[in-house]
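Table S2 (text version). Query chain:
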Amino acid sequence: MEFSQRTKIFEILRWTGVFVGIFLAFYFGNTPVQQFSIMFIWVTVSLAGITGINLFFGTSSSEYSGYMSESGFKRQSGINLLAVAITALIVYFFNWGTYAEAAVMLILLIFLVINSINHAYSAFVEGARNKINILRPVMTLVLLIVVLPLMLNALSSIK
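Corresponding structure-token output:
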């Protein structure tokens, strides 16, 4: 399988995992805390983990995102995302609670917002107008609209 095809598959897997997590959160979660916890593990592992794994596919991943070269800094970013995903798994499986889940989710959301700004900059200032650079800010906004109310409801329901 060609690297660019793998990268497209990873991109589809990332967002499929997010949508599955949101569906499962509402289907199985009976309280805001349960809903957030279910959604948390799916969203963080799907977005941070799969993106981090994608670092091993080098240049094709960069080109698919509209960047022309691979660098050590991009690998470092991927490693950071893997660390976020691993931390999410630890927090979830050791049941560290909603505050820990919210802290990890907040780190991921802040990264995604800043990353979306970077993609928009690449698209509109640098002229790298591709699907990823155009859709990333839109998808991040949709994610924020879904995740933030769930997270805030879960946090406010803790006594």
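Notes on Table S2: The chain is about 85% helix and 0% strand. The CA atoms of residues 75 and 85 lie 15 Å apart.
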